[in-house]
Amino acid sequence: MMDTIFVQTIWQIMEELRDANQLDTALSKSLDILKEVTGSEAGVIWMLDDQSERIIAVSSSGPMDYTGLSAALGQGIIGEVVKDGEKKALSGDADFGYTLEASEETEIRNALVIPLKTPNHVIGCLQLINSPEGYSEEVTKVCENSCSIIALDIEDKGFSFRPFEDREPIVQIRNLVKEFMSGEEIRRILKGVDLDVYSGELMVVLGESGCGKSTLLNIIGGMDQMTSGKILVEGKDMSNPTEDELTEYRRKYIGFVFQSYNLMPNLSAYENIEFIAEISDDPMDSMEALALVGLDEKANSLPRALSGGQMQRISIARALVKDPRIILADEPTAALDYDTSIKVLSVIEKIARERKTTVIMVTHNPEIAKMANRVIKLRNGKIASIRVNLHPLKATDLVW
Description:
Beta-Lactamase
C-alpha cells in the first residue's frame, strides 16, 4: 500500500511539471504534494543564486513565511546540503543557516533536507519539517526521486533563477488572530498568520470565500483591529495603535482600492481625486494621478458618465494621489469583464513595477496571481502556501 502511495506521488509530480505553464506553479504544487504525503507541517524549496552564492527560499508550504529567507553556501544545514549534494535527516532543532522570527508553533522537531541535483551541479534543495512519524528510509527515497525529477525538469526548461533584491520588510505580521461574535459564538477568521510584506513588491492573496483574505487586508490597512498578534510597520509596533496613530498611518501609508469603487457621485473624476489630495500630507498632482491611469481626458466627467472600468481606474488614481507606501486592492476586477480587467490590472502593474509602490491584491482568480512577485494562499484562516513567481507575467499576457 505504501509503495502504491509513493508511486502515485512521483506520478503526480511528473504530471504537474508536464502540465504547468509556469514552472513556479509546478514547483509550488510539487512541494504541496510532498508535504502532504510525508505528513509534514511545512515544506520549503530553496534555489541557489550563483552570483551571490546564497540559497534563497522561493516556495513555502505551511503556516510560516520562509520566502525571501536565505542561507550562505556551505553554512548551516541548507548551505551544506547544496554545497555537498548530500541529504540530511535530523531530529530536534538545528542550525539551518537562516534566521526565522517564528511564532510559538514553529519548533522544529525533525527535518529532512534533500538536494535538487542535476548530473552537472546542485541547484537548490527541498526542506521538509516536522513529520509526526519522522522521515524513514522509504520516505526519504521517494523524496530523493522526486527531487531528481524536479531538478532535471528545471534544467531541461532552461530555468534561470534571479532572487529578490535584498530589502527589509515594510510590514511584518506575527501570529495574527482575528475573532468576532457570530450570534452567541466566537468565530475565529484568522488563526495565527505570519507574513512579511516587502517594499515595492506586488503580492496577490488567493483563497476561497470566507478564508480571511479581505479581513487580512483590512487589518493591514488599519480598517479593522486584530484580536491578538503583532504588526510592525517599518519597525514600529502598530499592534495596538491609538486613534491618532491609526489616522496618521492610513494617511501616510495606505491607499485602498475597493471592489465597489466608492466614488462620490456629484463630484467629477478630478474632484474625487482632489478631495483626497487636499487631506493628504504630501500628495502628487491630481491631474498627474489621472494621467497615470490613462484618464486625464475624463477629468471633468461625473461617475455616471464613466464605464465600470473607468470608475475603477479613477478609484486607483484616488488611492495613488496620496503617494502611499502601500496600495491595498480588494477584488478590484470582480465586477469587470476580461478586457476591462486587463486595463485595470495593467494600471496596477505599472504602479508596482515603475513607481515601486507595494501592492497587495486580494482576488479569487488564480490567473491574476501569475503577475505577482509572490502569491499567498489562505485556507481556513491560515497560510497554506507562499510562492515566489520568478518570472511574473505581464497583465496583458493573462488569459481566463
